[in-house]
Amino acid sequence: MKARYNAKKLHVRLSGKEILHGLDFEARSGELTAIIGPNGSGKTTLMRALSNDIAWTGEILINGAELKRLPAAELAARRAVLPQMSVLSFPFTVHEVVELGLRAGVAGAEVARGRNLVGEALEKVDLNGFGGRIYQELSGGEQQRVQLARVLCQIWAQADDGEPKWLLLDEPVSSLDIRHQLAIMDVAREHAGQGGVIAVMHDLNLTAMYADRVYVLDGGRVVASGSPRQVLTAQTLSEVFGCALKVDAVPGDDVPFILPQAAGGVGAVVPR
Amino acid sequence: MKQARPALLATLAGTGNGRSMSLTQNIQHARMIATRRSQADGDRSATARRAIMLLAAVLLVVAMFSLFQGASDASALAVIKSWLGLDGGYAVTTRDRVVIEAIRAPRMAMAMLVGAALAVAGAVMQGLFRNPLADPGIVGTTSGASLGAVAVIVLGETLFAPFTALLGSFALPVAAFIGALVVTLALYRIATNSGATSVAMLLLAGIAMAALANALTGLLIFMSDDQQLRDLNFWLLGSLAGATWVKVWTAGPIILAALLFMPSLAHGLNCIVLGEAAAGHMGVPVQRLKAVAVVLIAAIVGAAVAVSGGIGFVGIVVPHLLRLAIGPNHRYLLPASALLGASLLLLADIVSRTIVAPAELPIGIVTALFGTPFFFWILLRRRGLLGF
């Protein structure tokens, strides 16, 4: 029996304007669920509602428990959220930022005792040896990976109570180079196997590669949902994004194209 | 933070977008300290613990020094020996005993309490507003507390008679607390919109708030009589000259209780550095944290102002220096701020009462003289950070 992170009849109003119009959404444990759609379609708003950042009406359940009834710490023990962009006002080291994740949630540091979770998380996001660097000094892509390491630490530090732990990723690869896009999506994929992942995605190719289930949003409504093969059709995408798109088509003229689908393993060609 | 913003505000705002900026003085300096002092993996907690022990030792030395230094030649050593029963039969003169026990000792205790209070209030406020330039003295909290205190002094026997009758010697600190609380709460309301604090709004609203509180204070001073004016003079510049054990016992419990409670906010303040939403995602009850922090800031600033007037710059200098030395982790920053704040104010007090002895300089002048150049230094380094 799969656990779910789901929303029913979800309405969100922001400054008087309704952004989400009674939307139904369901993510299953063991899967990576992607949310795609054009700018302003409500992807990020849906994500913020799912992570309980903004006021919403309807019903959101995490592993069957009502989101609104869970105290912040209980909720943090069940799901971690990767923000789009984080600006820090004080010179924390990378180690200190990632370590914050260890003390999040309920059990927190107890689980981490005796393990170098910070080091493991940094290794996972390809930032080995970055612990002593000052966060602000890193590039945008590196900062994003530090945040992912922090979020992984939060998940890892929670006691294993049999409930799946959810990872909510808001455009996790938006400022990454292609190697790290693949590396980070591999991490997300790996976590989806042990818990569940919900990700707002811009890159349709990566969505096709990594998602088990795709929700297409437009104008605050779900216009299609299902497996990438079912959802990512020329007709749906063309309608939603408002431009003629083809799927599985090879460009005719002599323009090079590079697809993540065709990439070898991360680090396979040019080792670090 | 929005990119397009008038230059001055951007400087004041300070939280640069680290991504669009290249290496800067500020960060290079912090990194230099970080790499020099910390273990390779970026965990500065051991350094911070050592620094706290060092600061405690320094405070002890400075505190003893302040007992020994003063306009009078009273021998602190003799008095301390007699306290310990080691006076070897020599009777300490009553004059020496009075100077040490009734003048220097309460003054030492008060300087430590007020210094610790102002430094910790600054550190917590900077964490809460996510900005190294937030300080009770700059955003109007101190002005609010002064207004409360001055109102009690001027109107205590007329308009506020029931209030002073009810609270007795606590009327002053309670009024200062209320003044500080009102300003801080209003500031938070104005500067924070749906979970995000606008630093430009914070500083502008703070300046406006301080101006309003200062105007009202000025109005009260205008209304006051000669005797009240003498009492008020003390508020204008900040001074520890009036230190008595009664004042120490009035403000001390409030400040100590708040200081002991502060460490429980440390993890929340660390998380809030990532933003209020991110802190919430990590299980921090953000609204409660903010409410508790604001009340605590108001309590200790109110108590400090009630006994010493508005002493500026401790709250901005101390946490900033410590962040450079031990990093911004509040678990260590808060206790270290308390210790260094206490030491610095003791030193400032020693300067203020010995430099023109037997007269003395109000301590507010001393902290402002040393604090202002430091404040400009921070501003100019921030200018480098913002790239203009």
Structure description:
The complex is a heterodimer of chains A (272) and B (388). Chain A has 10 helices and 10 strands. Chain A has 272 residues and is of the alpha/beta class. In chain A, the strands form 2 sheets. Chain A has a 6-stranded mixed β-sheet with strand order 6-7-8-3-9-10, with helices on both faces. A 4-stranded antiparallel β-sheet of chain A has the order 2-1-4-5, with helices on one face. In chain A, α3 (94-102) crosses α5, α3 (94-102) runs parallel beside α6 (140-156) and α5 crosses α6 (140-156). Chain B is mainly α. Chain B has a single domain (50-64, 110-386), classed as Orthogonal Bundle (ABC transporter involved in vitamin B12 uptake, BtuC). Chain B is built from 17 helices and 2 strands. Chain B has helices at residues 7-13, 25-37, 45-68, 76-83, 94-129, 141-155, 161-167, 171-191, 199-223, 226-237, 245-261, 266-272, 276-281, 286-308, 314-326, 330-354, 363-386, and strands spanning 192-193, 196-197. In chain B, strands 1-2 form a two-stranded antiparallel ribbon. In chain B, a hairpin with a 2-residue loop joins β1 (192-193) and β2 (196-197). Chain B is globular, with a radius of gyration of 22 Å. The relative contact order of chain B is 0.17. Classes of the chains: A alpha/beta (272), B mainly alpha (388). At the A-B interface, α2, β6, α3 and α6 of A face α2, α12 and α13 of B.
